[in-house]
Amino acid sequence: MTDPDNPEKRPRKQRHLLLKIDSWIDSTIWNAGFRSAEIWEDITIFFRRFRVRGWKRIVFELGGEGLTLGAVGAVLMLTLAQPAFEATKEDWRNRGDYAVTFLDRYGNVIGHRGVIHQNSVPIDELPDALIKSVLATEDRRFFDHFGIDVVGLFRALVTNAQAGEVVQGGSTLTQQLAKNLFLSNERSIDRKITEAFLALWLEANLSKKEILSTYLDRAYMGGGTFGAAAAAQFYFGKSITDVNLAESAMLAGLFKAPAKYAPHVNLPAARGRANEVLTNLVQSGLMTEGQVIAARRNPATVVDRNQVESPDFFLDWAFDEVMRLSPRFHQHSLVVRTTIDMGLQSAAEDSVETSLREYGESYHAKQGAMVVIENGGAVRAMVGGRDYGESQFNRATKALRQPGSSFKVYTYSVAMESGMTPDTIVVDAPIYWGNWSPHNYANKYAGRVTIATAIAQSINTIPVRLAKEKLGIQPIRAMAKNLGVETPIRDDVTIPIGTSEVTVLDQATAYAVFPAGGYQSRRHGITQVLDYGGDVLYDFDHDEPPAKRVLSEKADTYMNQMLSRVPYVGTARKAALDNGILTAGKTGTTQAYRDAWFIGYTGNYTAAVWFGNDDYTSTNKMTGGSLPAMTFKRAMDYAHQGITLRQIPGTQPLPPDKTAKTVAATKPEEGSPPPLVRPRMLSIESTRILKDLGQTLKAAPPLAAQKVASAN
Predict the structure, then answer these.
(1) Do domains 126-310 and 345-656+676-686 have the same CATH topology?
(2) What's the CA gap between 505 and 493, in Å, rounded?
(3) Is 385 exposed, middle or buried (0-12, 13-18, 19+ CB in 10 A)?
(4) 441 CB contacts (<8 Å, ≥6 apart)?
(5) pTM metric for this prediction
(6) Fewest CB atoms within 10 Å of the CB: 372, 547, 562, 581?
(7) CA 55 → CA 47, 60, 97, 558, distances in Å?
(8) What are the domain boundaries of the chain?
(9) CB within 8 A of 680, min separation 6: which ones?
(10) In a 3-state reduction of DSSP, which class is residue 612?
């Protein structure tokens, strides 16, 4: 037998085969290397023909570097353009195809959105004076630039530098349209870059006439109107095709600041602005002084209208809700009955504005937002900012702000669901989670405390300790989502103390679960959508599913018991309502005092209040228990006048002695504005009877057709 371990004893043929394979591998590798060297030498010899020297080499080097930098720049530009590409994916044209009339909860017309009933007039049929007035004031080089006016931008920079302040803008009309269609009024570098790309996209996809026509149709013109056609009808009571030069100048002056120059609010300011527009016409060479002198001497007059303010922030949100529901029906001319209560809306607006006017300067806070939801889910009031005319950005629905301690209710809800109670003891002491360690206010620690005390005193370490040692982060994120927070929650160990941004509407929606007994709040702003023939296309009560339980009855009871202590022994003592109305809620204050929150509720209403600054600068140590709590109380004291009071589930009414102390503690300070008074139309009992009658009629089956007896 052959020994396999002895190479000398292997068969001769096998040894020869292995030698051949080895030889073939060696020769192949050598030949490949040799051939590669020959090819490289041929390539080198070939490219020597193109070698340049002297000044030509400098040109080629600069060209090569230019191509490299150009490629890098192209990649960078594409990266910066991504937000613009995302914005243009939506059907932005179709948004204007809808003509929507909005009604309040009682059936009164409160505003319009979409193509606002004055049909869009073709650009060729608009008065020449209006077109010239707009171009002379907003963009004199409109027909000469490509969406971004480099010459105009440089001129604006020089003018502003000479004046030492911003006296001239550099944005083109196309850029303004891009902002109106796709963006908010946020002042940031990112937004300006996105705006520039969108302007280029509009110029590439629309003609100059289409851009100008869309701009005139979509711009906010004050008084709740959008578009020049609607503004002409609202202010002058005539068609846009019939306006004269003086009226055209007044309309053109509204684009800059519709709230400031709205003629039905401040006619002298509107006329002064119109005079500036006439001067622009002369300076731009579009008209002579002789052509505008008559308009200077005979300024436009406006139709006298009652001051009925339109809830514009709410209408913007309600219009978005209509767009969300629009796949359910094909009609585009709609009448929408909403949930808004104009009395509560006025009270909410007054409360936010009064707080900012009285205390905003001392607290260094310039903006506020508020949402009021009635038990059952109907949004009764929405304040998205201080002045819609100055900024249409809705801070109630779109501004993402850190909620601070007001987010802790989600952690404690999970704790209650997991078997803990308000009396469960947890240690308040320094805690580390990785490299992060939360701190209490004033860096004080109380040792062993109950969860009820922790939530009343807004202790930071307790929810973090519960999340780290007992609950985990994922159940907290899931609880926030189940309760109604629509904004995605970050997967971060810091979220138990409110570092993940949410909206005011998110917080109001989620907190409304507690007075609903643990069921979904079913937040909504639209009750019915009808066509102009009166046919019902959508009905919330019939077309939406019933509320699901998202919090157990026991957990909801525990949460209500704990949160109802906060306005009396905790951080929100300025929020407790008068007349013995039990109030519950939670304050929230973020890092460096950038945001201050109070979200509170009774058995009837839930309201979320936020104050801060658009540029995220810090306030002057404003906490959730100060201005937000005071604003909540002012609006909610009004809301609870003359209505049947409901009890918060799982709680007991305040005892008489506690009620007296609460009224004394919340008595307005001397010099503060008087409380709001709700006008009484019907007694509580009469209101109850009418509501019961309405429910009975609504539930009744339709009447069968009756035959009329013949006279013969």
Answers:
(1) no
(2) 24
(3) buried
(4) 458, 460
(5) 0.70
(6) 547
(7) 19, 9, 61, 84
(8) 126-310, 345-656+676-686
(9) 641, 642
(10) strand
> Between 3.40.50.1460, 3.90.660.20, 1.10.3810.10, 3.40.190.10, what CATH number should domain 126-310 receive?
1.10.3810.10
CB neighbours of residue 624 within 10 Å: 31
Cβ 248 vs Cβ 129: under 8 Å: yes
Q: State which residues of the chain have pLDDT below 70.
A: 1-15, 48-53, 56-57, 73-74, 76-97, 114-120, 156-170, 184-188, 191, 305-308, 655-672, 678-687, 702-712
Nearest to 473 by CA among 455, 451, 500, 447: 500
Whether residue 604 contacts residue 583, with contact meaning beta carbons closer than 8 Å, is answered with no
509: its two tokens? 């929606």
∠ CA(583), CA(585), CA(591), 5° rounding? 145
Q: Contact at 8 Å (CB) between 574 and 566?
A: no
472-506 b/e with 16+ CB inside 10 Å = b? ebebbbebbbbbbbeeebeeebbbbbbbbbbbbbb
Alpha carbon distances (Å) from 154 to 148, 163, 175, 509, 658: 11, 14, 16, 48, 67
Q: Spell out the SS3 assignment of 112-176.
A: EEECCCCCCCCHHHCCHHHHHHHHHHHCCCCCCCCCCCHHHHHHHHHHHHHHCCCCCCCCCHHHH
> What pLDDT does residue 37 have?
85
Residue with tokens 């506690």: 658
Angle at 661 between CA 659 and CA 663, to 5 degrees: 70
Identity of residue 156: A
Location of structure tokens 């109907």: 378
CA distance 497 to 25: 68
